[in-house]
Amino acid sequence: MIFEVWAPKATAVEIEVLGGRRPMSPRAGGWWEADVPDAVHGTRYGYVIDGDGPYPDPRSRRQPDGVFGASAVYDHDHYTWSDHAWTGRDLRGAVIYELHVGTFTGPGTFTAAIEKLQHLTDLCVDLVEIMPVAPVPGGRNWGYDGVDLYAVNETYGGPDGLKSFVDACHRAGIGVILDVVYNHLGPSGNFLRPFGPYFGGFEGSFWGEAVNLDGPGSDEVRRYFIDNAMQWLRDYHIDGLRLDAVHALHDKRATHLLAELSEEVDALACTLGRPLTLIAESDLNDPRMVRPLEAGGLGMTAQWNDDVHHALHCAVSGESHGYYADFAGLPALAKVLTSGVLHDGSYSSFRERGHGRPYTGVPGHRLVACLQNHDQIGNRPGGDRLPAAALRIGAGLLLTSPFTPMLFMGEEWAAGTPFLFFSDHVEAHLRDSEGDRREREFEGFGYAWEAPDPSDEESFLRSKLDWTELKEEEHWSMLSWYRDLVALRKALPELSDPRLDRVRVDTDPDGRWLVMWRGPYAVSANFSSRPVTVPVPVHTVLLASDAPLPSNPSTLRLAPQSLTITRTPH
Residues 126, 179, 281, 434: which is the catalytic one? Predict the structure, then answer.
């Protein structure tokens, strides 16, 4: 077997394998190689750089003993796939379901998650988005402290476990999106630095040092991340990637990393004969992110849209602190439902400057919107979710909106469990300071920060979904509401129409009601604690969160804090 590693500054590289060390031969471009005929699937190994090490392989496909252990040879051909008939899943018209493998079920494994796929098919979910699965220190983590980016967390089931999960999802008709982190690596177990110039030498974000995308040696660093993306899509049959915090990718080269990645993923999609999706998490409000490469854009299929979340959250919760301040009031919600974003060059009070550009001509399916996600729940000190009344109205608007809707695990039954921030750092200084670091991250957000210790195992255990809640009427009723909304969205083409210029919104900020028109269908929401009358002529009531009150033919009477979907006579 041929072992290869990039170490351009090294004068000597050895591989520690099969009980001894063997010298590696230099190759062009800073690469080193060694032929080890006796190495097979499962063989442990590591690299020694100028006498230091052994270190795990930067492209390790498996870390069976964790981030501080040796790498293991992993042959992708050892897994037999059963998804040969799978033709992929397009993002257009899809409903996404985000989950964290470790807390989605009690066991917190891929195998256990497979057992819940029937729940997702009954909900008519099209794509499952799983939070990062790269190895992390300890036994629990959100996943954004990942290292050894080519490997899969062993606590979840390792590489074979991920493949089994993807295989099972495809058999169930569900595509899989994997959340990946390319803007930084975790602070513990990161051994890339001895190998080469992987980092830019400056703080790229709150979470750590920026990766080197445009400095000396950056050609191979960029290749490291692009090859990683291609591995998931090709070797793990993943259908798409969610790229974490791309605004923290510092790249001044003429061709941005995202554009380069998009081009290669498009080529791979042609080779595989199935659609491949790239979703960027970006707070730039820049439509260039989702414009095609040929139109001068970065070529992302879609991006997360925080503006829609913030406007929905303010409307259903009444909160207006921190970054929610600009989104308070129904006019803000009306604007995002018709324009895609609130900040399109307007002043952002949280940033204290103008922010964003108009998304003119961008279809709504390129904007992934949610009522809740891991950030918006987990970044609250208590990890608390929205109450049932807020969920009914918010989900009604989200699932009839022109955007690509995304649900967060447990939301569909108004789960009572929180989703807290948790980690399990091995080093004492990281473990003991995690809570303080977390508090500093959210200075200025308007929270009285009283959060459980992220390093306490109880923070992790409390975040696990309690599936027994579905035996209770209030939770089953909410699940039925979500199922009905998704089914209605899929049955009526107007409800998934992504053309923003065809969305019309009427609102009364004083009366606290809003009507979103989707062709002949009216989605009427009453956010107030008293009944209201809205000017909607009713032909048929399709779905209602509460029994509609007596009305005349030209108006609709809404119960307090309720939502009704009706068809008008014309």
Answer: 281
